[in-house]
Specification:
Length: 125
């Protein structure tokens, strides 16, 4: 499996889901995210995903066209209800209302893995 870097993922898909399994790969995430990554690792819960439940992932969205192989981005939490499982990958329905122009939309579907899930929210959706 070829590892696509954080920026390559933003450019190709318009978004990137934080992946706990990629944090030890040198150069995968830009240096300016190292503090955030440390915070996300501390927040990490040992999640055993259940279909029908909602989980939160950290999502990064491209907000500019690429220049020199990089683009600007914004990030936030993305709530996803797991609706189907395909091996170690889930299909989730996005529960979060996102700004126009972002690559994902509320009600849309997304492939997501356990490594992308940060926590199970305790607030009503």
């Amino acid at each position: 499996m070829i590892n696509v870097t954080f920026q390559e993922d933003l450019i190709k898909q318009g978004y990137h889901l934080f992946d706990k399994s990629k944090t030890s790969l040198i150069g995968f995430y830009p240096k300016e995210l190292h503090l955030l990554i440390t915070e996300l690792k501390q927040k990490d819960q040992n999640i055993d995903p259940v279909l029908g439940e909602v989980y939160s992932a950290r999502a990064f969205f491209a907000i500019s066209k690429p220049i020199g192989g990089e683009c600007s981005y914004q990030s936030g939490y993305l709530d996803v209800r797991l609706i189907m499982q395909e091996g170690d990958t889930f299909i989730g329905e996005i529960q979060t209302e996102l700004p126009d122009g972002f690559a994902l939309k509320k009600g849309g579907r997304i492939k997501i893995r356990t490594e992308n899930l940060i926590y199970k929210p305790d607030y009503p959706l």
